[in-house]
Amino acid sequence: MTDNLATDILNELIGLELQGLAIRAIESTTFVSGLSQAEEPLVRKLAMQHRSNAARLADVVSSLGATPGMRNPDATTGDLHFVDLAQVLPRIVDYQQKLVRLYEAAGQRLSDTPSASNIVSDIALHHVLMLAELQAQANKTSNASS
Questions:
Q1: What is the helix (H) or strand (E) element at residue 96, kind and residue range?
Q2: What's the total number of domains in the chain?
């Protein structure tokens, strides 16, 4: 695999991290009701993880001699303002599932670039673990609202 292809893949992952719903939910004025109080720390943790992952990926892109790409927030997330975080959590879970699939595919595609593959595999594992936490919290919230 060429470094150009590896940096393209890594830059795509950077964009996905920076456009994560958790970041947008924390930056917006998402409403935190009594029902969603337990979710807020978890979503904040995920938002910090997205930023950290983007920085780690950017370091790898730079080490390959390329410039890390950046992204603006996803315009389709503009509806998060004033929505209860409990209602946003299922979308965050869906986005996290998407990230797990994309990271697993990217890890396979980057197998010829160990510096990139190792970081991508590590981040994929973090996403899998965070997905399990999110799903557990979503189930608790769903059961509490029933």
A1: helix 85-109
A2: 1
- What range defines the domain where residue 124 resides? 3-145
Closest CA relative to residue 10, chosen from 110, 124, 126: 110
Q: Which long-range contacts (CB under 8 A, 24 or more apart) does 37-46 make?
A: 38/137, 38/140, 38/141, 39/85, 39/86, 39/89, 39/137, 39/141, 40/85, 42/133, 42/134, 42/137, 43/85, 43/89, 43/92, 45/130, 46/20, 46/22, 46/92, 46/96, 46/130, 46/134
CATH of the domain at 123: 1.20.1260.10
Helix (H) / strand (E) containing 142: helix 114-145
pTM of the model: 0.87
pLDDT confidence of residue 75: 62
Query: How do residues 49-103 score in pLDDT, each as one tens digit?
Result: 999 999 999 999 999 999 998 776 666 666 666 677 778 888 889 999 999 999 9
